[in-house]
Amino acid sequence: MQAAELDLVAATPVNHLWPQLVERLGSERAVQAARQALDLQAMRGQPGTLPVLLVETCGVGLVERAQLRVATGLPLPEDSAGLLLLSRREGALQLVWVEGGPAGDFKPRSDSPA
Length: 114
Hints:
There is one protein chain. The chain has one domain. Helix 1 (17-25) crosses helix 2 (27-44). The longest helix has 18 residues, at 27-44. The protein is α/β, with parallel strands linked by helices. The chain is 31% helix and 25% strand. Strands 1, 2, 3, 4, 5 and 6 form a 6-stranded mixed beta sheet that branches. It has helices at residues 17-25, 27-44, 65-72; strands at residues 12-13, 49-54, 60-64, 82-87, 92-99, 107-108. It contains 3 helices and 6 strands; from the N terminus they run βααββαβββ. The radius of gyration is 12 Å and the shape is globular.
């Protein structure tokens, strides 16, 4: 998937996508989907990319951090481990900061910004 296919400018930052995903899939399967996105970042990503998880389909991709920052204004430190949750249906996105290794012990930090 190319970042150009995602309408990041129109997406609204929210805080409910991760809880919705956990509710729909269960904790174990939601974490597994997140790990797949983080694995993609580890295998194909660059320091300037961020993994994306499409919440409706659990599809994964990569987006350029700079493009996301310009489109949304969200703060994206280059050295932080994060995951972008995107709902195309809702036109919503949630940036989740990750504790632990790239795909080892995935757990969203409680201080994750919108």
